Hints:
The protein is an alpha/beta fold. It is built from nine helices and nine strands.
Amino acid sequence: MASALDSQVDIVVPEMPSFTKGYHHRPYPAISPSRPEIAAAATGKNIVVTGGGTGIGKAIAIAFAQAGARSVAILGRRADRLQQTAAEMKSEAAKHGHSPIIVTEVTDLMQRENVDAALLSIQTKISTEAGSTYLDVLVSNAGMAPKMGTVLGYNAQIMMNTFGLNVMSAFNAVNAWVPLAPPGDKAVLINVSSMMAHARPVVTNFAYSMAKAANLKMIDYFAAENPTIHVVSLQPGIINTELGGDDMPVFVAPDTTELPGQFCVWLLTEEARFLKNKFVWANWDVEDLVSRKDEVLTTRALTWGVEGVPV
């Protein structure tokens, strides 16, 4: 259907199906960092967010700071963006009565040795200031969305770069993090994924979808290999960010970055523990989601597979 927006944007995002009756585009009270249950879940935790200088990663880092995390560390490629975000985190945390340790690390997530060094540096800094040695939560958020195109005729180098940034950055992050994570069932990995990992093909978006599908399967294996670690993968919403650079089409994106930011903090609560090893959307109403807890726990709901083939 044509609209006045058609001359201003390339794609208008349609309404989405939902696992829950409630479907949100922006934050709401049940996921507020000020909610006591959420603040309690964040208190004392050391958080690491890759790709934390801009967009969704920035919003996630700010939400953890608002909720009262002990420390929030952000990793990225651009020192100026990291410093700007760190200043905002400090300001927003203060508004909520908190003063977390804030750490920035400029690093290339494609280089394993750089990621190892960055996380060790974070551990050293928070140990000095807070006497804590564990990195409790890793939010694997870094990624990129390439220019659109079909399989036939697509630039092979761009395809491989897309795979690298969406898969290898997460691979390097989890490998660097696990030796520094708390023992037992206290470690939490939040994998910022995309609905494109499981959705029907969207013509011209194969490279991003392929990379996100590979990322999701890798994280599925990581979860199976490390059953004590609490792993959740997340569709953050449909949001205009810098992820795709100048080549991406302009979207009318209905969701705010604050929605997945606050949803990620909610994922640390006891009421969200039933979502271990599941794939969720930040848009879904958390109270509706909790009301379907028994279904989620006793079926393959919110897992990736082939319908009708329970393997």
